[in-house]
Structure formats: structure tokens, C-alpha cells
Specification:
The complex is a heterodimer. By secondary structure, chain A is mainly beta. Chain A contains 2 helices and 9 strands; from the N terminus they run αββββαβββββ. In chain A, strands 1-2-3-5-6-7-8-9 form an 8-stranded antiparallel β-barrel. In chain A, a hairpin with a 2-residue loop joins strand 6 and strand 7. In chain B, 13% of the residues lie in helices and 43% in strands. Chain B folds into 2 domains: 34 residues; 250 residues, Porin. In chain B, a hairpin with a 3-residue loop joins strand 12 and strand 13. The radius of gyration of chain B is 29 Å and the shape is elongated. Chain B starts with 9 loop residues before the first helix and ends in a 10-residue tail after the last strand. Chain B is mainly beta. Classes of the chains: A mainly beta, B mainly beta.
Chain lengths: 185, 304
């Protein structure tokens, strides 16, 4: 029993190491939010999303400041931050999860690989599961991750007043594009 | 014959399984959290410029530090009604209204130009407001937003006087701080010069304005404003303008409802010619409405 326990502990200890060669990072990932109805179109772009993708185990994390979402109109951006996202109270939005079929992606072979992502998204103080499909594009040694999924405002306790419900849909589409580079440290 | 080489019984097996599951899953979660935390310094803003210290270009009577952004147009209609104690017949002053129409346009993100016409002395005026310094946090810290406001007005009453005699000039330095999403406050040192005045009056008036807003629910804020003026202590005609009210902010409109003792809306009149004595029926209802139009797209934020 003691031998087994020692073997077990040693194997767990080695499991803790991650090969950095497999980790990719971006500090300027793009996320676009979009929602349209006859009364109003919500459109914003965030060019400062940071993300790490670990090809070793499929871990993927991403984080950004809510204030980094930029709108065409300054007034809409101010309302987004002050009334809806309450960025002063909840400055960050983050995602952590796994690409479940990471083994299907061959880093050495150019191509478009379909992937499935499972994880949780935390914003406005609420955490909800996310299930999405996406693509990893390998080209000339560059790695690009793309995915699109919808989030529900109500699920994140983002309050829309009754009088605005006709102008603001509950479902908002997030479009993610991350251009990764190998992590060097 | 003991075929259990390591003397593991069912209980030990269970313990081993639990240790494996627990450490693998917690190890995974910890790994993801570590990765996430390592990114924190990469997403922090270089400099965050504090915006929307006030929700419109006016606190109540006086200008706030806020400008229209480039290509934004603010259409304003300001009302000052009659004496609040006029009674129901005069609709508590509503029947006796002074009105001011104005258009303010953002030439650049920092420079705003305005034109206005008001009932008081049938005044036409033009103004400029320039955003000098912005409050910011992050890599660079500055505690306040500072703007400069100037106004040139001419009354067009029917008495014989050359244009020069009808002119008044106002200069203000507006200094405001947004303490948090709920509270903003502003100081407005001001200077008014009137080319022609009553015999017992003074051409130059200096004043210090104190104003602020406090948001108590979403989209609604209390507002207050008071100007301490240099000439009022020597005069029994003029009083320091004071106002208290509520701002209601909707999509593109800001509605300002308040009571004040000052009926002229043009700055030279508001600061130097307020005749409302709050102890003697000098309280009037006021209503400002502001509608902002975006005349052009903000090209900086165009999608790629």
C-alpha cells in the first residue's frame, strides 16, 4: 500500500508540469458584440482581449476589461458601461474552458480544424456555462482561433428596463477572433 | 495464497481513487485560474480618461465641463417659468415662461461652438467651450477635468443704442471631478463684463459657482448649483443664483427639472442679473430638455 501511494504521488507530481512549448498567447484578441432589431443595432469591438491556449491539454482562457468594448457612439458606450455592464463594479469579463478535441489539431499541418469548446464565462458578476463550436486555423506556423456564440443578458443579470426591451434583444452574439503566437517564457 | 500483492483492500482502493479524482480535477482548475491570473497585467488600460462627469452640457443654470463630441449636436430648450406661488390660475407659473433655444455643436472632440436665442432681453448669443484637461487614471493620473467657456451676447431690445452698448462678455473656467458613478462636483470661477448697466450697478462681476450631481437610481440624479457673486452683497436688487433639481436621462435625451431663483438663462443674466428673492416669492420652476444627435459616425471605432 505504501509503495502504491508513493508511486501515485510521484505520478501526480509529474502531471503538474505543462510543457510551455505547447502554450500560445495573444494580448490583442478581438471580440465583437452584435445584436440587431428594427429599433436599434448594438455593435461594439474589443481589440484588447488576452488569451492563452494550451495545445498540450486543450485549456483555453481569455480575459478582458469591459471598458475595452468600443462603440460608434460615445453615448451608447457610456450607457453600456454605466447602466448595463456596471463596469465600475465588474471591470473584467473572463472565460475559462477546454477545447475538448484539441488532439484533432495538428500544429505542424496547415489547415482549418473544427473544434468544440466547453467552459464558463464570467461577466457582470455572474458565471454561466458556454458550449460552442469553432475553428482553429493553422497557416504558415500561425495559429488563429475563431468562434461565435450567443449570450443571454438575463443569464448574466444584465437588467434591461421594460421600456427598452423592444430596442434591446436578450440574445447578443459574440464573435471571437484570436491570432495567437507561441508563448515565450 | 495471497494474490493481493500490495495488500490493497477495497477501502484503500476507494481512498486511492478519491485522491486521484480530487487532485486531477483541482489541479486542472488551478491551472486554468493560474493562466487567467497571469494575463491580468496584459489587459490593464494604459490611461483611462474619465468621461461623462455630467450627462449634459449644463449642470442646471450653468455650463458643465462636458462638450459635444466631434459631429455631435445638442439641441436644447430651456424654460424658466413664473413664480411658483402664482396659484392654480396661472398654473403655478407655467403660463409665464421664458424660453431659451440653443444649438451646440462639436467641431472637434475638444471644441464646441454654440448659438442661442433667449426671451430675456431678446438676447442672441454665441459661445465656445474648450476641453483643456481630462480627468484620468491608470498610467497617468489627473484629478479633474478642466474646460474653458466663453460667451458673447447681445440684447436686441427696442431702445436706441449702438451694438457695442448691447454686448456682454462671459469667461468661465470649469473644473470638475467625477468621484464615482454616483457623484460629480464642479467649481466654476466666472467673470462677467457688461458694456452697459444701470447707474447703480457694476460692469464687472466676479463669481464662483459650486455645482454637482448625485445619481441615486439608474438614470436619475439630484442636481444642485449655486453661484457666489461679487456684486450681490452691495445690491438689494440682485441675488446669488441657486438651483436644485433632478436630471432624468434616457436614450438620447436629458430632462432637467428644478427650482431656481434665476430666470435669465444667458450666463451674463444668470450670474449678474438674478432678481429672484427666495424669501419673497422668488422661486421659479425650470425645465431644460437636451437632445443629442450624432451627425456623423465616430470614425475611430469603425469595424475592420
Amino acid at each position: 500500500m505504501k509503495k502504491v501511494l508513493i508511486l501515485l504521488l510521484m505520478s501526480l507530481f509529474f502531471c503538474g508540469f505543462h510543457l510551455n512549448a505547447q502554450k500560445y498567447i495573444t494580448k490583442e484578441g478581438h471580440i465583437e458584440i452584435f445584436s440587431k432589431n428594427p429599433l436599434f443595432t448594438i455593435e461594439a469591438l474589443n481589440k484588447k482581449v488576452a488569451s492563452i491556449l494550451d495545445f498540450g491539454n486543450g485549456d483555453i482562457v481569455a480575459t478582458t476589461l469591459v471598458r475595452s468594448f468600443k462603440f460608434h457612439e460615445a453615448l451608447v458606450e457610456d450607457h453600456f458601461n454605466e447602466n448595463y455592464m456596471e463596469s465600475e463594479k465588474f471591470p473584467k469579463a473572463s472565460f475559462k474552458g477546454k477545447i475538448t478535441n484539441i488532439k484533432d489539431v495538428d500544429l505542424k499541418k496547415d489547415g482549418d480544424y473544427k473544434i468544440t469548446i466547453k467552459g464558463t464565462l464570467t461577466m457582470h458578476g455572474e458565471t454561466n456555462p458556454v458550449d460552442a463550436t469553432g475553428t482553429i486555423i493553422i497557416k504558415d506556423g500561425k495559429v488563429t482561433g475563431k468562434t461565435q456564440f450567443n449570450v443571454s443578458l438575463a443569464a448574466y443579470k444584465i437588467r434591461v428596463e421594460e421600456s427598452y426591451k423592444k430596442s434591446i434583444n436578450d440574445e447578443i452574439r459574440l464573435s471571437v477572433t484570436f491570432d495567437y503566437a507561441p508563448m515565450t517564457n | 495464497m495471497n494474490n493481493n500483492l500490495y495488500n490493497i483492500n477495497m477501502k484503500d482502493l476507494l481512498i486511492i481513487r478519491l485522491i486521484l479524482i480530487f487532485s486531477l480535477t483541482s489541479g486542472l482548475a488551478k491551472a486554468q485560474d493560474d493562466l487567467l491570473n497571469s494575463l491580468d497585467k496584459d489587459i490593464s488600460e494604459d490611461v483611462h480618461y474619465v468621461g461623462y462627469t455630467f450627462k449634459s452640457t449644463h449642470i442646471i443654470n450653468g455650463h458643465s465641463v462636458e462638450n459635444m463630441k466631434k459631429n455631435q449636436l445638442d439641441f436644447r430648450i430651456n424654460h424658466r417659468f413664473g413664480e411658483l406661488n402664482s396659484g392654480l390660475f396661472d398654473l403655478y407659473g407655467l403660463d409665464n415662461a421664458l424660453i431659451n433655444f440653443s444649438l451646440d455643436y462639436g467641431l472637434t472632440n475638444r471644441l464646441m461652438i454654440g448659438v442661442r436665442r433667449g426671451t430675456y432681453e431678446k438676447t442672441y448669443d454665441g459661445s465656445l467651450k474648450y476641453l483643456i484637461l481630462r480627468q484620468c487614471t491608470g498610467k497617468r493620473n489627473f484629478p479633474v477635468t478642466v474646460s474653458y467657456f466663453t460667451d458673447l451676447s447681445a440684447n436686441t431690445m427696442l431702445y436706441s443704442a449702438p451694438l457695442q452698448r448691447r454686448l456682454s462678455f462671459v469667461h468661465q473656467l470649469l473644473i470638475a471631478r467625477k468621484f464615482n458613478e454616483k457623484l460629480s462636483m464642479q467649481l466654476s470661477p466666472s467673470f462677467v463684463h457688461r458694456n452697459s448697466i444701470q447707474a447703480t450697478d457694476v460692469n464687472d462681476v466676479y463669481a464662483l459657482g459650486f455645482g454637482g450631481r448625485y445619481k441615486f437610481v439608474r438614470r436619475v440624479a439630484f442636481t444642485w448649483e449655486y453661484f457666489y457673486c461679487s456684486h450681490t452683497s452691495k445690491s438689494d436688487t440682485y441675488y446669488n443664483p441657486i438651483a436644485l433639481g433632478v436630471d432624468i436621462e434616457t436614450g438620447g435625451h436629458v430632462f432637467q427639472l428644478f427650482i431656481t431663483n434665476s430666470r435669465p438663462m444667458v450666463e451674463k443674466g444668470m450670474i449678474a442679473e438674478t432678481t429672484g428673492d427666495i424669501t419673497h416669492n422668488g422661486i421659479y420652476l425650470g425645465f431644460n430638455i437636451s437632445r443629442v444627435f450624432a451627425l456623423g459616425k465616430n470614425k475611430e471605432n469603425v469595424k475592420e
